[in-house]
């Protein structure tokens, strides 16, 4: 009776972690979409700012253009930093999933026969191995 309860709890935990992995891929897509949208807006703002600088002359125009470029570069750099940070989080998540898979597989070693085969199969499926 106890091994069956342990197996069921293990299966529930594995399922919850797999659900988190699927949600993470959706998050990665959203991060890319947000990054692309931020860069597109920065490009549009830069273009508009450059056009606004055309009314100026001499050094004032040069300063205006440099400020427009600096604003654009800042927004793009912040977007890249956010995306890289999110990529680092995704990488950490993948490392954790691999580690959890190894734990789940090791727990399967206490079983034998069909129960062990089913446990290993479930661990592989849930952790994408």
List the helices and strands and how they pair.
Blueprint: H1 2-53, H2 58-108, H3 113-126
Helix pairs in contact: 1-2, 1-3, 2-3
How much of the sequence lies in strands comes to: under 5%
Number of strands: 0
Give the biggest beta sheet: none
Shape designation: rod-shaped
The CA-CA distance between the termini, in Å, is 29 Å
Instruction: Calculate the mean pLDDT score and round it.
Output: 84
Please tell me about this protein's structure.
The chain is mostly helical and 129 residues long. The protein has one domain (2-126). It has helices spanning 2-53, 58-108, 113-126. The model has no long low-confidence stretch (mean pLDDT 84).
Briefly say what this structure is.
The chain is mainly α. Helices cover 91% and strands 0% of the residues. It has helices at residues 2-53, 58-108, 113-126.
Keywords:
single chain; mainly alpha; about 0% strand; rod-shaped
């Amino acid at each position: 009776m106890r091994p069956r309860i342990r197996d069921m709890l293990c299966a529930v935990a594995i399922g919850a972690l797999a659900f988190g992995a699927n949600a993470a891929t959706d998050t990665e897509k959203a991060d890319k979409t947000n990054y692309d949208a931020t860069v597109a807006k920065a490009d549009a703002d830069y273009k508009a700012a450059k056009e606004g600088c055309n009314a100026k002359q001499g050094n004032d125009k040069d300063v205006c253009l440099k400020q427009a470029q600096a604003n654009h570069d800042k927004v793009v750099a912040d977007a890249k930093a956010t995306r890289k940070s999110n990529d680092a989080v995704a990488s950490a998540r993948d490392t954790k999933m691999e580690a959890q898979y190894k734990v789940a597989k090791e727990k399967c070693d206490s079983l034998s026969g069909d129960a062990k085969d089913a446990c290993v199969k479930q661990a592989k499926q849930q952790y994408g191995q």
